[in-house]
Every structure is written in structure tokens, then in C-alpha cells.
Amino acid sequence: MKSLRKIIARSILLTATISLLLVVVNIIFTANWAMKNPSVTHSKYDVGEIADGLANIDGTYSLNETATAQFNAQYSWAMLIGQDGNVVWSKNLPADVPLIYTLTDIATFTRWYLNDYPVSVWESPDGLIVLGEPKGSIWKYPITSTEATISQVPSYLGGFLILNLGAALILALLLGLWLYRKLKPLYEGITALQKKETILLPTKGVTGEVARILNETSVVLKEQGKRLADRDKTRTEWIAGVSHDIRTPLSMVMGYSSQLETNPNLLPAEQDQAKIIREQSQRIKTLVADLNIASKLEYEMQPLHLSKISPAAMLRSISADYINNGLSDPYSISLKATEDSNGLSLLCDEALVHRAVTNLIDNSIRHNGSGCIIDVSVKKHPDGCIIKISDDGKGYPPEVLVNSDEPVFLENHGLGLIIVRRIMKLHGGKATFENPSSGGCSVSLIFNQ
């Protein structure tokens, strides 16, 4: 964070410097133009209305209400100098303002100051009206200009604007280039981290601390990646070893239980118990096989044996196997293959896709104890094909639909659905799960080729 603060501080300092330079350029440009081409300014104060409001009644002067209000709003004192140079009327007159004036005195103060008081004057029939403001309140300076200079003001303003824009653009580009050069190595380092590559950034300059942290992070991530890879390899090998070791004793249990199940010397209850042993042993064998293949698929250790197959022909074979192997009466399988799907070819690992389809069919059978109708179909889509397995059973629980994009272990659905998702991921496709409004559930295996 210290390095980042340093970068920000330097950026702020550089930006402030740019702003200051622009201000200096503006001041120099304006001062140079003003000195070479002085302009003419006029008083903005309307003293005429106040002068007209001063009335002389039998030698007594007074301001009407309108003139008094305007006077109070703009001025602090006023006086009327008669034709003989004497002050004949005054209002709020300061003590340091004379009461008698010569022609020279009047000529001196009429445009600018009277004893440092900014004044404005107006001619009246009885003399000269003088309106004063507090000292230091108004700055007056004589400025004149030629008509040629005034006519050049638009071009001067245009040039002034272009100069400012050009200076701002150049300085902004320099700032951007500086930031780009400083931050580019950091960006490349972060990109390399994302790709799990080792990085070695230079640790000098304002970004040195951040670069050092990224270098250390790269080393840590590499070590962690190696440990994770070793752990995953060990776990996969352990699962494969257990699967292999359990296969032989499990086959013996299944063989002996099958013999006991058909042994006429046993009582029917004993034969039923032997049948249960055989069925549960078969279930254990299936679970161990599922665990083994799920582990291999998770860590991409399952090799793909790609070949072009007819998905319609594969689905016909799978459906026929279920029917021929004695699918019980509460269940039925129907195959829907459109005419254009018969000519479809799919580049895939046939054994894995076969496994995904049978897992879904087995899932429908296992979770609908009272029976269901299973529909298997294949159709073409613009980028490949879609194999769909649906049933009219009780549908998937919410957790299956919520986690449809991320393989997670679900207690009631075992590893079957996880394997389906991983097989589709391995083929660059995806499996979508839904419960149609008409009831049951539906899974679409989408292959993009």
C-alpha cells in the first residue's frame, strides 16, 4: 500500500504542477496582451438618477426616496459643489474631504480619486454632484484601446483557447505515458500470475514495493500449486489403489452370494438375504467405480479416446440394453430420433458419453420408485447436437438446479450427476438440468463442435 500511495502522491503532485503551469501560462499570456493592447472601461454606476433626485427648494437641498435608496445601496457619502467652488450640500461627508475647491482640484479628482476616496461625478444645474465610496473599495485605472485591437479580440481568445488545450493535451499525454511505463510491468506480472507463471519484476522505482510483493506471491503460488498437484495426484492414486484392491474381494462376495441366492438347499428367506448381499455388493462396486472415474475426471487424468460416432445409433443401443436386460414393468424407455439426427456424427469418447447417458437413466430409475416413463432423444443444433434425457417422475430437488453449473456432491444423487457434468466439461460442452412445468425432470447434454 505504501508504494501505491507513493504512486498516487506523485500523480497528484504532477497534476498540480500541470495545473500551476497552465495558470502561469494564462497569466503571462493575459498580462502580455493587456500591456500591448490596453482597453477602455466605463463606470457602471448610474449617478445621473441620484443627481436628478436632488431637489432645491428655496435654497434647501434634499434627496427624494428613490434617490436616497439608490445612494444608500451604492455610495457612502455625497456632496454638491456650487459654481463658486464651495460645497453647498453634503451627505455623510468625511472630515478629511475639503469644503472649497478650485478648478484645478475639480479637474484632478473628477475621474478617479478625491483624497483616496473613489468618486463619481455628475453635472447638475446648481453645480457638480460628487458621490464617494469608502477608501480601498474600488480600483480605478485608465485603460484605452484602438478599434483595431478590439476587432482582434475574437482571434486572441481563439488562440488563447487553443494554446491552453494544446498545453493540457501535451502534459496529459506525458502523465499518461509516465503512468503507463510504471504500471505496465505490474500488469504483465498480474497477467502472468493468472496464468500460474513465475514472474521476476524489477523492484526499483515507485512501483518497487508492489513488484516485490508480486514476485513473492509468484513464488508462494508456485509452491502451493506444486503441493496441491502432489496432493491431488496422491489422492487420485490412493482412490485408484483402493478401487483395485477392493475389486477382487468384492467379486468373491458377489460370486458366493449369487451361488447362495440360487442354492435350492437354502430356505427362501436365506436366498433373499443372499440376493440382498449380491445387490448391495454390486452397488458398492458401482460406487467405487464412480468414485474412481470422478476423481480422474476432476483432475483431467482420464484420457480421451475420440472417435466419430452416430449419437442416434448409440442411444438405440443403450435403450435396447435396458429393455433386453429386464427393465421392470413400472419403467419404460422411449427413443425419439428425428430424421435429420440419423445422419449426425459426434466426435467424442464413446465410452464416457455412454456412461453419462446411462448415469442419467439410472438416476431416473433409482429416484422414482413407483415407476416413470423415460424419454431419450437426440437432435441437431447449429453448433453440434443435443442429447436429452427426461422423465415424468418427481423431478430434481432444488439443490440440483441451484448447483447446475458447478459440480457438487449431493447426498441423494451420489456421484452420478457429478460424473455427467465432468464428462460434458471434458468434451467442451455442458449439461443443463431443469424441472419442466409439465412435471418430471429433464437433462440436456449439449455438444458444441
From TrEMBL:
Q: What class of enzyme is it?
A: transferase
Q: Which residues form the Histidine kinase domain?
A: 241-449
Q: Which cellular component appears as one GO term in the record?
A: plasma membrane
Q: Name one GO molecular function term.
A: phosphorelay sensor kinase activity
EC number per UniProt: 2.7.13.3
Membrane-spanning residues where?
Answer: 12-35, 156-180
Pfam families xrefs: HATPase_c (PF02518), HisKA (PF00512)
Positions the record marks as coiled coil are none
Keyword Phosphoprotein assigned: yes
Could you tell me what this protein is called?
histidine kinase
